[in-house]
Amino acid sequence: MEWQLVRERVSELLIVHFGLIGKQVTFASRLDEDLALDSLDLVEFAMVLRDQFQVDLSIEMLRLPYTVGDLADLVAAASAEQREKG
């Protein structure tokens, strides 16, 4: 999946999963301060990402603060790495 498509899909998943409809969610939105997500929310969301992209993200990878773009880039990189491994 192309990098930009991964970024858009991660953003969509955040909006739907956490009910952020109507909030201004951009790639620069900070997960903790702007979207009010905490570390438990991110662990929960990591499971959503695993199901959607077949990637495993460690707890260390999900440390705050991150932006939506940072998280999407992390997923895209992990997804590309998974594809390379076959």
Automatic annotation (TrEMBL):
Signal peptide: none annotated. PROSITE patterns: CARRIER. It comes from the Bacteria. Residues 4-79 form the Carrier domain. Pfam families: PP-binding. This is Acyl carrier protein AcpP. It comes from Pandoraea pulmonicola. The lineage of its organism: Bacteria, Pseudomonadati, Pseudomonadota, Betaproteobacteria, Burkholderiales. The gene is acpP_1.
